[in-house]
Write a structure and sequence with these properties.
The complex is a heterotrimer of chains A (101), B (200) and C (639). Chain A is an all-alpha fold. Chain A is 77% helix and 0% strand. Chain A has one domain (5-95): Helix Hairpins, CATH 1.10.287. By secondary structure, chain C is mainly α. Among the domains of chain C are: 347-558, no CATH class; 564-638. In chain C, strands 1-2-3 form a 3-stranded mixed sheet. The chains are: A mainly alpha (101), B mainly alpha (200), C mainly alpha (639). At the A-B interface, helix 1, helix 2 and helix 3 of A face helix 1, helix 2, helix 3, helix 4 and helix 5 of B.
Chain lengths: 101, 200, 639
């Protein structure tokens, strides 16, 4: 493969930044969650790039674990969002700024 | 031109574009679909980096399971509208954009100072992937990282149980009083109307 | 003055071992009367008087024992217990009996006992009878501690204690506002002197490392430079100025007459005010070590003598006239001390105690008989109505005026003679003028009160006092008349008694010869008496009209030459303004403002900080991201 590793890392960084912007900017909880998934993917990409760079499979295994845990996290997170929706009829995070209600 | 270069330079812009698209669109379903595209492109990157196993896993798990789950919930809750052009928090969008640019810039300079933009991947990864990437990964996974593997499986079980607990509604028998109340407020007629009272 | 030889200190054995009972008995009875005095009625007075009489007995016995010792050994110190022991600084409770303190304890307990007995009659019917005697006994205790103390700290203890008792007793009838004001004025004015004295004590500790008399007086000349000695002496003298009502701190004594007459007699004539004289005589070695301290003392005494004398001639209130007289006579005592005639000062003190107490108690008797009227313009012709009082008071007045062979004659003229023989002409002449003033004001008092026709209804109906009141008067009159034989000139008994402690009387060889001197002295006295008889007693002069012609001088004199007004304008009003400023400006606005501003500032800060807690998750996330980027930048920069 002829592409310099640094490009992959840079791509990973750009995707991560975009994901962060998404987290900060969106109001819908689900969209925020999706931006978080984007961030996780960017990190996975970086891990695998480093794994390639060092000729070590540890990075890939770590990325694998990251995916598994991300899956579990999505499951629980979505369940929570559904529960909140049932209670408040909204998934707007700006509406959830006081501990009461 | 080397094939992997071409692939990279085709899929990287698509990746970025789909990410931007996900950020911009108003409809949540559209955003989810953009994310799916993005996940696909990342899977291709994995392939470029000699990780075919993960390429497959990415598509199956991420794009296949997780995003489907997302779409289920979006459509279940019906929250696909995301209005409000102007963000009510002071300078939120501006600062976020600025910081993102700053972050990328930092990364750029770090990379330039560290690895440098010319270093290519070293040879010899084929030796690592010797019997095939999947077998190699399996060997590392089940030998060196067996304990975390088991713990992760427990984690998945716990997550499943947690979800079931979180999602359940309280089931409760409907009392006779409630039934009478429902009947009293209901507008559906319980008997047929008298023909003599129908309008002519 | 020729310095005295140091006397070896003897321990207190035998009868002298009971020395501590001397102050202890009045103290004990004072407490008894404080707790039980209200319930037992007249017995409280009797018990209190007995306590002082017993103390007098012990004192007399102790002095007898002292006299049994040869003159070079008449110094006894009884150490009771250690009071302060800090590092190398030690103060013990030591009672010291020597010639000076022996004289004082006899005066205090003797005259004190007589006044206690008088007070049983005078204070009869007062609702706080028991407490009065408790205070009187407490005063006797403190006065005894003052004169018996073997170190300056005990002296100061007694000093402050008598000041306290003076305050309590002046303001005894505190329901009347002016009595309470007078008590406060006395305490505050003497406090000024006391503060200076305290600094003097501190200087003594600084120079000598101890407050005990023996080491200090033995080494005063060597340890203290001229400047240091002057400083210490003048500071101590400042305390004496306050306590003994000398100019400029004399203003409290005329107002202190608001207290009951026995109080005026005991505290403000016989004992407390003489504490200043005692202090100066006791501290003589320190004063001697300074070149100017004694001169200052003499000048202050002289100025007071003349100033108070002028004021006394113009007073209408009988007690105020006697108060100014006391101030003036105290000036005489300081004049004597300032001239180096310490024994003469002490003798004057004794004589004055007798005749001034007599005059005060007599005036109390007069006031009693006049139905509490004190203005002499309303008296007159009381000789027929209260003969015993009149006779005793006349004897006291003659003693004060210096009538030949009475106590005052010997006292006063010893002082003038020393001034004469040492060629201190200023003191001699002005002192003689002071003597003329003394004779004048006391003659005026007697003639206005007892002679002529009664000028008011109370004078018409006046009556003599009960026996419990005129018997002490008679005893005091005896002392005033015959006490002079204790002195008999510079080589008299008192002088030789005191010599071991205070040294020889400075007798020079110059000046007017003896016969001329005595002729002049007697002439001065008789001039004053005859003059006042002519004006006030004979009925031939309309003294009210004559006085009117001299206005506004008599009015000024009556008001003490407006010194009180001056002090009010100079010190009291600014003080009140400063207090008002401190309370309502500095405290209310400044300090409270600062504290409130801090509180307000915190509140505003908190309210500002509160805005960070928006509750918006996205704001928090943004903050996290800001921090992350910043940290990365910093790390990147460093690397």
């Amino acid at each position: 493969m002829r592409t310099p590793i640094a490009y992959f890392l840079l791509l990973s960084g750009i995707l991560f930044a975009l994901g962060t912007v998404g987290v900060l900017t969106r109001k819908n909880a689900l969209l925020i969650f999706m931006s978080v998934e984007l961030q996780l993917n960017a990190v996975n990409l970086a891990l695998i790039a480093f794994s390639r760079m060092h000729n070590d499979l540890t990075g890939q295994v770590l990325a694998f674990f990251s995916m598994v845990v991300a899956a579990a996290e999505v499951v629980v997170g979505l369940a929570i969002i559904v529960a909140i929706y049932r209670r408040r009829q909204t998934v707007d995070v700006d509406d959830a700024r006081e501990l009461r209600w | 031109m080397p094939l992997d270069n071409v692939v990279f330079w085709v899929f990287a812009p698509i990746s970025i574009a789909s990410a931007v698209g996900m950020l911009v669109v108003r409809n949540a379903v559209h955003a989810a679909l953009f994310l799916v595209v993005n996940l696909f492109t990342i899977a291709v990157m994995y392939l470029l980096l000699d990780a075919p196993f993960l390429f497959a896993v990415q598509i199956v798990v991420y794009a296949g399971a997780i995003m489907v789950l997302f779409l289920f919930v979006i459509m279940l809750l019906g929250v696909d509208r995301d209005v409000d052009l102007k963000d009510r928090l002071f300078a939120q969008r501006g600062l976020a954009a600025l910081l993102a640019v700053g972050f990328v810039a930092e990364l750029f300079f770090a990379l330039r100072a560290g690895i440098g933009f010319a270093t290519k991947a070293p040879e010899g990864f084929d030796a690592v992937n010797d019997p095939g990437n999947t077998q190699a990964v399996a060997e590392v996974l089940f030998r060196d990282y067996f304990f975390p593997f088991e713990v992760t499986s427990i984690l998945l079980i716990v997550a499943a149980i947690a979800t079931m607990v979180l999602a359940q509604r309280k089931a409760r028998a409907v009392t006779q009083a409630e039934m009478d109340a429902r009947a009293a407020t209901s507008t559906t007629p319980t008997t047929d109307p008298d023909p003599r009272e129908l309008p002519a | 003055m020729v310095a005295a030889e140091a006397i070896p200190v003897s321990a207190a054995d035998g009868a002298l071992g009971l020395l501590w009972l001397l102050p202890a008995i009045p103290l004990g009875v004072a407490f008894v009367n404080l707790f039980f005095g209200q319930k037992v009625g007249r017995i409280a007075g009797v018990v209190a008087s007995l306590a002082v009489l017993v103390s007098f007995g012990i004192a007399a016995n102790a002095v007898r024992e002292l006299l049994a010792l040869p003159p070079e050994q008449r110094l006894v110190v009884q150490h009771l217990f250690d009071w302060i022991s800090v590092g190398s600084f030690k103060v013990g409770v030591d009672l010291r009996l020597d010639a000076i303190s022996a004289t004082m304890i006899l005066v205090v307990t003797g005259v004190g006992a007589l006044i206690h007995i008088y007070a049983i009659g005078y204070m009869h019917g007062d609702p706080r009878f028991g407490r009065f005697f408790a205070y009187l006994n407490l005063f006797v205790f403190f006065m005894l501690m003052l004169v018996l103390g073997g170190n300056y700290l005990l002296l100061y203890l007694g000093w402050e204690g008598v000041g306290l008792c003076s305050y309590l007793l002046i303001g005894f009838w505190f329901e009347k506002e002016e009595n309470a004001e007078a008590a406060k004025k006395a305490f505050i004015t003497t406090r000024i002197g006391d503060s200076a004295m305290m600094i003097g004590l501190a200087l003594i500790v600084f120079h000598f490392g101890t407050l005990d008399f023996e080491p200090i007086f033995g080494a005063a000349g060597e340890v203290l430079s001229n400047g240091a000695a002057t400083a210490v002496a003048l500071l101590l003298f400042a305390g004496a100025i306050g306590k003994s009502a000398q100019v400029p701190l004399h203003v409290w004594l005329p107002d202190a007459m608001a207290g009951p007459t026995p109080v005026s007699a005991l505290i403000h004539a016989a004992t407390m005010v003489t504490a200043g004289v005692y202090l100066v005589v006791r501290s003589a070695p320190i004063f001697e070590a300074s070149s100017i301290a004694l001169d200052v003392v003499a000048v202050v005494g002289l100025v007071t003598l003349l100033f108070a004398g002028v004021c006394a001639v113009a007073q209408w209130d009988i007690k105020r006239a006697l108060a100014y007289s006391t101030i003036s006579q105290l000036g005489y005592m300081f004049l004597a001390a300032g001239l180096g005639a310490y024994a003469a000062a002490m003798f004057f003190l004794v004589a004055h105690a007798f005749y001034k107490a007599l005059l005060f108690l007599g005036s109390g008797s007069v006031i009693h008989g006049m139905d509490e009227e004190q203005d002499m313009r309303k008296m007159g012709g009381l000789f027929r109505k209260m003969p015993v009082t009149a006779v005793t008071m006349i004897l006291g007045a003659l003693a004060l005026a210096g009538f030949p062979f009475m106590a005052g004659f010997f006292a006063k003229d010893v002082v003038l003679e020393i001034a004469n023989t040492n060629e201190r002409w200023g003191f001699y002449v002005l002192g003689s003028i002071g003597a003329l003033l003394s004779a004048t004001y006391i003659g005026r008092l007697i003639f206005l009160t007892f002679f002529g026709k009664p000028r008011s209804e109370q004078a018409e109906d006046a009556h003599e006092s009960p026996a419990v009141m005129w018997i002490p008067l008679a005893v005091l009159a005896l002392g005033a008349t015959f006490g002079g034989w204790l002195s008999l000139g510079p080589e008299g008994r008192i002088s030789s008694f005191m010599e071991p402690i205070v040294g020889l009387v400075p007798e020079g060889e110059a000046g007017l010869g003896r016969p001329i001197f005595y002729a002049v002295a007697v002439a001065v006295t008789l001039t004053g008496l005859i003059l006042t008889w002519w004006i006030h007693g004979s009925g031939r002069v309309d003294w009210l009209a004559q006085r009117e012609r001299l206005e506004p001088l008599p009015r000024a004199s009556l008001n003490g030459w407006y010194v009180d007004r001056a002090y009010d304008l100079l010190f009291v009003q600014p003080g009140k303004t400063a207090a008002w400023l401190a309370a309502f400006v500095v405290d209310a606005k400044g300090i409270d403002g600062l504290v409130n501003a801090i509180g307000g500032g915190v509140k505003r800060l908190a309210q500002g900080g509160r805005l960070m807690q928006t509750g918006f998750v996205r704001s928090y996330a943004l903050a996290v991201f800001v921090g992350a980027v910043a940290v990365l930048a910093w790390v990147g920069w460093r690397l």
